[in-house]
């Protein structure tokens, strides 16, 4: 089989690798049919990652099940499934508590798309081995488009977690989204669908802002501090200066979720946060726990994640098209 390998800044290539095989009765082999880059993949391709190449890339996809071990009961060959980005056993104390990105059975940061907690391959591959198949794989609900849901492995389900539980606790809250990519757009869609009274989407990219307006959000190209204006904020830029501006816009006892990967240090206005009682979470996402709820919302018809898909591109064109700077391209494989 082939796996798409990151070899240098803005450079990926197909490399041959042995076909994965079942190593236990609880595993599955899947073939990705719709895969998309996560926002962090864009950072890796731009040369901002912290793992030296080469390594297999990709951690967001919908796949078709090819083979399963004898004890797998949740999925069967032919099923369409969402493959979570992090490797998790589903049975350790952390997994049972929903902390699937911190599974104690596997090495720390075990994941697809980067060889940090072991080598698990990437989801831009012809075939992928999935350990703990019953715990990890989530069947795609009937009627959902694999292209629209290619990001359910991470960004779409993360966006659900960033805003949906907070809006349930604070109906009608005002939501601020400061973003540079797909996560912020998904959040804007979900926030409006779940009853936010006001959504402001901040992004310098005019095409992104146009998409946000299509979701009913107000937009701006930059953020000026608006003290005590927003009850919930989501920062997804990876820039500490933008996070600092974001937390200055919050009402007392507000919540700020930071979904950016902050590769560079910076300063936060801690005194302002102290005076308003801000809750700030900067978290590696335990996405497996949220995928079912995120898919349920997608199936409700209240949201339109497909609008964020910027390009639909043939699987064979991954090496040339992935390094191009598109918002959310989905690479589709017809033969799996």
TrEMBL record:
Pfam families in the cross-refs: ADH_N (PF08240)
Transmembrane regions listed in the UniProt entry: none
Keywords of the record: Metal-binding, Zinc
Cofactor: Zn(2+)
Species of origin: Streptomyces lanatus
Span of domain Alcohol dehydrogenase-like N-terminal: 25-139
Signal peptide: none
Name of the featured protein: Alcohol dehydrogenase catalytic domain-containing protein
InterPro entries xref list: ADH-like_N, GroES-like_sf, NAD(P)-bd_dom_sf
């Amino acid at each position: 089989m082939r796996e798409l390998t990151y070899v240098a800044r803005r450079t990926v290539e197909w490399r041959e690798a042995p076909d994965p095989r079942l190593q236990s009765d609880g595993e599955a082999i899947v073939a990705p049919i719709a895969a998309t880059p996560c926002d962090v993949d864009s950072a890796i391709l731009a040369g901002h990652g912290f793992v030296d190449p080469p390594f297999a890339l990709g951690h967001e996809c919908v796949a078709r099940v090819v083979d399963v071990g004898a004890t797998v009961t949740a999925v069967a060959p032919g099923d369409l499934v969402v493959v979570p980005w992090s490797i998790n056993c589903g049975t350790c104390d952390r997994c049972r508590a929903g902390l699937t990105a911190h599974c104690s059975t596997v090495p720390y940061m075990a994941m697809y798309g980067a060889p940090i907690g072991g080598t698990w391959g990437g989801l831009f591959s012809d075939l992928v081995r999935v350990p703990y198949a019953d715990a990890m794989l989530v069947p795609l609900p009937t009627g959902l488009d694999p292209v629209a849901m290619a990001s359910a492995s991470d960004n779409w389900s993360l966006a659900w977690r960033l805003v949906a539980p907070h809006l349930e606790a604070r109906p009608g809250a005002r939501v601020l989204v400061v973003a540079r990519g797909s996560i912020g757009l998904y959040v804007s869609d979900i926030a409006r669908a779940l009853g936010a009274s006001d959504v402001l989407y901040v992004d310098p990219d005019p095409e992104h802002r146009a998409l946000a307006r299509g979701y009913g959000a107000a937009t701006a190209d930059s953020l000026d501090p608006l003290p005590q204006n927003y009850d919930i904020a989501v920062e997804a830029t990876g820039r500490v200066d933008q996070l600092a501006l974001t937390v200055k816009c919050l009402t007392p006892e507000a919540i700020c979720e930071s979904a950016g990967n902050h590769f560079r240090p910076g300063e936060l206005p801690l005194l302002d946060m102290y005076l308003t009682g801000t809750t700030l979470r900067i978290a590696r996402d335990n996405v497996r726990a949220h995928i079912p709820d995120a898919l349920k919302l997608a199936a409700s018809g209240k949201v339109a994640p497909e609008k964020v898909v910027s390009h639909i591109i043939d699987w064979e064109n991954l090496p040339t098209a992935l390094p191009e700077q598109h918002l959310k391209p989905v690479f589709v494989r017809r033969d799996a």
